[in-house]
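EI: anyone free to look at a 717-residue chain?
SC: sure, send it
EI:
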Amino acid sequence: MTDTVDPSNATSMTDLVPLLAPRTIAVIGASRRAGNMGQQVLSNLIDYGFTGTVYPVNPHAPSIRSVHAYRAIGDVPEPVDVAVIVVPRDHALEAAQACGEAGVKGLIVITAGFREVGGEGVALEHRLMEIVRRHGMRMIGPNCMGVINADPAVSMNATFAPTMPPFGHSAFVSQSGALGLSVLDYAREYGIGISQFVSIGNSPDVTSTDLLERWETDPAVKVILMYVENFGDPRRFLETASRITKHKPIIVVKSGRSRAGARAASSHTGALAASDTAVDAMLAQAGVLRASSVEDLFDMAMGFGVVARPRSRRTAVLTNAGGPGILAADAMETQGLELVDLSPATVEALRPLFPPEASIRNPLDMIASATPAGYKAALTAFLADPHIDAVVPIFVPPFGVRQEDVAEAIVSAAETRPDKPMLAVLMGLKGLPQGRAELHEAGIPAYIFPESAARALNALNRQREWEERVAASATPRDVDRDGATAIIAGARAAGREHLTQVESIALLRAYGVPVAEVRYVAEGDGAELEAAAAAVGYPLVMKLSSADITHKTDVGGVHVSIEDVDELHRAHEQMMERVRAAAPTARVDGVVLQRMVQGGRETIAGITRDPRFGALLMFGLGGIFVEALQDVIFRVAPVDDAQALDMVRGIRGTRVLQGLRGEPPVSEPAIVDALCRLGQLAADFPDIAELDVNPLLAFPHGVVAVDARVLLQLSGA
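SC: here you go
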């Protein structure tokens, strides 16, 4: 199933309230047969106490579940907000047409066999959407599981799922019906409250982003959870999610992390942009929390049930067993949390609780003999410490200590500082359900393993950091757009898709990226070679100019540190011999001379295009090892200064740029400015398919683009 948008559906967004909180529901295809999907949907609406009115529609049954049934939707005696269509595919369009004629406001089409099966199903879905548009209805599905609104004021389970989650403040949208069943089971088992659940199926009408916009202002929704297979309109999602995450967390599980879908590309940037790269870039820019699995998603979601959010990453861990404490410390460090030293006052408060030889530190191991009273006293001391902003108590049940008593002690301690969050770990069968239930009721999430608590606490901090960040938009730089247009137009006029090295450098210069000046010399022109070298200045670098050879170093097409005119001619002769031996059929146009820029740290910046997300901007450590190390980061272009700075600091090798072993740090503002300019270039010129700046040398005083390669989109693409 996919989240798609039909571009012909240009109607304005109408309110989704009739679909999500209807007062009247008709079930078309309601049945008396046990195990029938229509029977299950009707039973769920009745058994879970839908507060509105339900109308079964079945031409062959006068009543179902002791509820009067109607032969057709047009026979229902009052206006219907939503019709749930659960009939065979061959009758679904007829049912939708009848709903439109009867003035039904919304459809939930559970029936499958449409676009997801291909062939005739695609055409049927188009016809279904024509009916929906013609009658001004909204539609969830087809090929979906249905809709749940667990708010007691609605209490609607319009799905075929045999369970109803507890009411809470999380809303969930899923593009997979089968996964939706597991989600609802998980939510019930772990006590995670769901406000609304929507399985959108093929979603030719109502999409995930439509639901985000609806939930943005819904006071009953505090956290938005999503299972996504793909994004129909990534740019719209980016804009919508970026706005929502400033006040509500969005947590996403996105399938398809595999690199198997990465397209073949000749540039470094294109080759590094795996199938999932654009998704990661977009979610990071939007402040969306990405979970690697459904379990991770619920770990994070449960964390947002805390009474208070952490004010910092400073955390303390309390345990009654050494092993879990070590695991917790490792997990905290992995998640970027800080296990701070305890203040002297905290140490003094804890000292009477332990023997003189005990080491009072963070994590604090109270050993297996710890009592509920010990938990309360130690946690109270932790919470009073001004250096601690979150606490993770861990309990492994020893003989003779009741989990409920420890849970009660944890709750009692938490009440002393309700402004500091606590995430508990109860390590026992299924997380010691009695203790867990008591903690959840008090706003203390409880996990089975320390890693889950660390993951959730990291998510809480990431959300806080995102909300505290000042919103910004990409600030246009002063650029020579006309000059860039002329360069690209010139290549197009010559029938070329690759810009020359000189053109590529000129394109960067037009957009204000500092460059090392270059001169092109046609093959065989010795006098011009000397003149160009004199103009550039020694020492210099000679590079091959050939549209047939992408990576020049592979064929000996680069010669560095040329100091004088004699070495210039020797280098030229040797280069031509090496190139003819390595690539005898390649067309050689000439060479490019460039003043040698020495020193600096090698970085790479680039542009590539994703067919759905558009232009992607890349940054990372550069040089010849870029594809081997793959220490790069992507964002959707254009970017603002804060996003560009995130890119610089987001690579694993950022410490290389900050200075190692006495080296001065490079200029982050200069890199940020260059990335913003490249992002603007990508947005301004969709003609650019791929662009590499490798290396972009970074210095304490600025940056210099030494080498660049630009590939234009195929003509007419």
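EI: The chain has four domains: 17-301, 307-468, 472-516+599-717, 517-596.
SC: 👍
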